[in-house]
Amino acid sequence: MSFEIDAWIANSLLQKSIRRGEVETAQRAAMTFLRSRGPAIWRRFVLIAFEDVGIGSTECLEAAVRALNSNSGAGARGNELLVSDLAQQLATAPKSRAAEHLITVAKYHHSLESDRVSPEQKFVAEVCSLVTSADCQPEMRALALWQASRKGPGKAERITQLLAGCEDAGVPSALIEATRTAVRKVDDPIILMVPLAWLLAVRGRQIVSGVLPPAVLIGDIPSYALDKHTLAGRRAIRELVKCSTVLRACLTKYALRDCWNEAAYMAAFYTDAASLAKKLTWRGAGELESLAIEADLMRTGISPEGVQPVLQTLQKTLDHLDELRTEVYLRHRKLSLQGRAR
């Protein structure tokens, strides 16, 4: 049932297969992660649920939090059925990466630089007003929420008041409770962005089918698992930068020379690792996603006018990247097996 891969690739494969709705792959990756990392699987499920499922299925968020509550202090090896079931729930659910988009824009988008460097000191009540105000731009609402929830004296109290403000603004109490529990146990700022995403998604909600880039099987591992979060993936992307004249020409034109590898890592991620099979969208969701992609690519040294050309070039060279992924992964696996035999 599990894969013969290391925990890093299992972790990457779990998240990407859930995004793509590939149930069997997600279940096998979850089992591999479970057998390698044990109880860490529950925290991982919570992060994936809030980052990739989000308001697409609040029931999945609640299920992931319940699993964490029930199993975080116990050995997970006897809970293979629960792990398999939760992987299936997350994979089949409609998804929204709006929480990820919001935290990315808040932390990195260049338009917020002055507000981020010298944030105004605001009372929590004023922050709540910003976060819940439909008249305020989503990026400013996300920035206010992120800054108010950062570490420091009174953080727990601030988060309590912020969540209460979101509930008063109409966020369902079950989502508020799941968020409160998750942020207490996992403490990742992306979690707090889900209630804000709920407030933003008020017009034109619909579930649409996404376009999934093709994947090559390397043995039984889909190539999309080898992204910037894995050693083999990073090596393959660096090889692409070295040998693809088309990509090098594009990076020469639009990216800082010392940043080519980082730029390619991020562009490759958005080419085939962030794709969703079934996603919740609404009026304004596309603009928010574009801001997040722009923020992520520009922070790697790509110029504003180069964001789309670099992405388009990675899409055109995806077949070449998959060839390199195959070579790198098989070479890495051969060396690993030889090391075990000694």
Question: What does this entry show, briefly?
Answer:
It contains 18 helices and four strands. Helices cover 67% and strands 4% of the residues.
Structure description:
There is one protein chain. This protein is mostly helical and 342 residues long. It folds into 3 domains: 7-92, Zinc Finger, Delta Prime, domain 3 (Up-down Bundle); 98-202, no CATH class; 217-341, no CATH class. 67% of the residues lie in helices and 4% in strands. The chain contains 18 helices and 4 strands. The chain has helices at residues 7-20, 23-37, 40-53, 58-71, 80-92, 98-108, 113-117, 124-132, 138-148, 155-168, 173-186, 189-200, 231-243, 245-254, 260-272, 285-298, 307-316, 318-341, and strands at 206-209, 217-218, 221-222, 278-281. Strands 1-4 form a two-stranded antiparallel ribbon. α4 (58-71) packs antiparallel against α5 (80-92), α15 runs antiparallel to α16 and α15 packs across α17. The longest helix has 24 residues, at 318-341. The mean pLDDT is 92.
Quaternary state of this entry equals single chain
Give the N-terminus to C-terminus distance in angstroms.
27 Å
Instruction: Enumerate the spans where pLDDT stays under 50 for 5 or more consecutive residues.
Output: none
Query: What is the radius of gyration?
Result: 20 Å
- Secondary structure: number of strands: 4
Look at the helices and sheets and give the structural class.
Answer: mainly alpha
Which SSEs are present, and which pair or pack?
Layout: H1 7-20, H2 23-37, H3 40-53, H4 58-71, H5 80-92, H6 98-108, H7 113-117, H8 124-132, H9 138-148, H10 155-168, H11 173-186, H12 189-200, E1 206-209, E2 217-218, E3 221-222, H13 231-243, H14 245-254, H15 260-272, E4 278-281, H16 285-298, H17 307-316, H18 318-341
Antiparallel strand pairs: 1-4, 2-3
